[in-house]
Write a structure and sequence with these properties.
Length: 461
């Protein structure tokens, strides 16, 4: 726990003081803020749309076991294969077996946060398989040896000049290329990989129970190429991604586009419901869907925390969070950053080691305000704090400090005793945990009781 907390505090201290980083993030989030209202304009009542989406996710999660079995039956009927993975190890083992069976040397992969969660690229590299990220932002991050910075826009923290320098360093391109030229370079290099790859891996924005389908949303077309060119298509999806019906996509696709990028609908929206069928000209020969738990049933078992599984990974809460804007995505040290990451990571990876993320919040409620499916994120952050306290995930010094504070704050004589100067010294100097990363507390020169008595005397006079 100390390592995670210490690393977080060290990184956040450095990043919060990095004005150039803040400029880039504010610039990119500013562009997002400018276009989201345009996407919202397609809805007559956007709040009603959000409530309906939340109700659909509620229905799906309350009947999750039935929906997943329905999905499996329908996919298998069309020749697909479903693999149930309890944790990351089981998921990686299954992917490794598929790759070995097909003697895979090159694998193409579209953007997927759940594959980042199980560290798929590292696993493939250790097993001698070249894994190529085909999303432009993910490709940039892979070249730089970094994980995604943001759920939707993985290279948000890089300027066009940064990317140009990276391409020059890694790909020997001429310096100072424009964004258009950089995109063409990446396109040329990635196109060759699609034809070389034996296996393609994608995530799933949604898995559709009533047709046994996987819905994929994108803007570049790289996911379509990743799942259709190689002979084998592997989908890795969290079990919470399920929707009851294909009809629900009419609601969720525009909602995800609006809150994710400000579009009315993304450029490419695909539904894959099995491998190539008889008489079809293209598509993979095999399709495997790995349904990943990896701690999600821990959240499902908690009646209050379950709401966090409604998340559709639009990234809106990250863009709205004042903490994220200042410390950035990599500082969190986990796959899912920002408010949603701070809510779910302690449940997925251990409350004792990750409880500090739930304290990395101003509790302003802006994350809840912008959530596409109206998750009460700030309340869930408070719940994590409460659970951590109830389970005893506090240091001895912290417990003693809060105990003394409680005794003093509930005792009027103690609150009125001593000068403001002494109180300031006790809180800001004796208990250094508060002032280490915050402005020192300043008690008023006069207590509330003193001010009350003075005002009453003035009024009576």
């Amino acid at each position: 726990m100390a390592d995670n907390v210490g690393t977080f505090l060290a990184k956040s201290t450095v990043r919060a003081a990095d004005l150039e980083h803040r400029r880039k993030i504010n610039f990119n989030i500013g562009k997002y803020d400018a276009v989201v209202p345009m996407g919202k304009a397609q809805f007559n009542d956007v709040d009603l749309v959000r409530r309906r989406a939340k109700n659909v996710k509620w229905k799906a999660l309350e009947t999750l076991d039935q929906r997943l079995e329905e999905f499996e039956a329908n996919l298998v009927r069309r020749g697909g294969n479903v693999i149930w993975a309890q944790d990351a190890e089981e998921a990686l083992r299954a992917i490794g077996e598929i790759c070995r069976r097909h003697r895979c040397k090159t694998l193409v992969k579209s953007k997927s946060m759940v594959t980042e969660e199980i560290h798929l690229n590292r696993f493939l590299e250790e097993n001698g398989i070249e894994s190529v990220e085909t999303d432009l932002g993910e490709y940039i991050q892979q070249l730089d040896g970094e994980p995604p910075y943001h759920i939707v826009t993985p290279a948000m923290h890089k300027s066009k000049e940064d990317v140009a320098r990276l391409f020059t360093e890694k790909l020997n391109t001429p310096p100072g290329l424009s964004p258009e030229e950089l995109t063409l370079v990446a396109r040329e290099r990635l196109r060759a990989k699609y034809t070389e790859a034996e296996v393609g891996v994608t995530g799933a924005n949604f898995i559709i129970a009533d047709i046994g389908g996987v819905a994929v949303t994108e803007n570049e077309g790289n996911a379509r190429l990743s799942l259709s060119w190689p002979k084998v298509h592997i989908v890795v999806a969290g079990i919470e991604k399920v929707l009851p019906s294909i009809d629900d996509l009419a609601l969720f696709w525009p909602l995800l586009a609006t809150y994710g990028t400000g579009q009315k609908v993304t450029v490419y929206n695909s539904i894959i419901s099995g491998p190539r069928q008889p008489g079809e000209m293209d598509g993979p020969e095999e399709m495997h869907v790995i349904l990943l738990d990896n701690g999600r049933t821990n959240i499902l078992a908690d009646a209050k925390a379950r709401e966090s599984l409604y998340c559709i990974r639009c990234g809106a809460c990250l863009n709205a969070c004042p903490v994220y804007k200042n410390i950035g995505g990599h500082t969190y040290g986990t796959t899912y950053s920002g408010p949603i990451g701070s809510v779910i990571t302690p449940h997925l990876s251990g409350l004792g080691e990750w409880k500090h993320l739930s304290h990395a919040s101003s509790l302003c409620g802006n994350c809840t305000e912008v959530c596409a499916v109206k998750i009460n994120l700030h309340e869930l952050l408070l719940k994590n704090r409460y659970d951590a306290t109830q389970e005893g995930h506090q240091g001895r010094a912290e417990r003693m400090a809060w105990k003394m504070w409680r005794i003093a704050s509930l005792n009027r004589w103690m609150m009125n005793s001593g000068s403001a100067r002494i109180k300031n010294w006790v809180v800001s100097r004796l208990f250094k945990g508060w002032s280490a990363h915050r402005q020192e507390l300043q008690f008023p020169a006069k207590t509330f009781n003193q001010q009350w008595r003075e005002r009453r005397r003035t009024a009576e006079a």
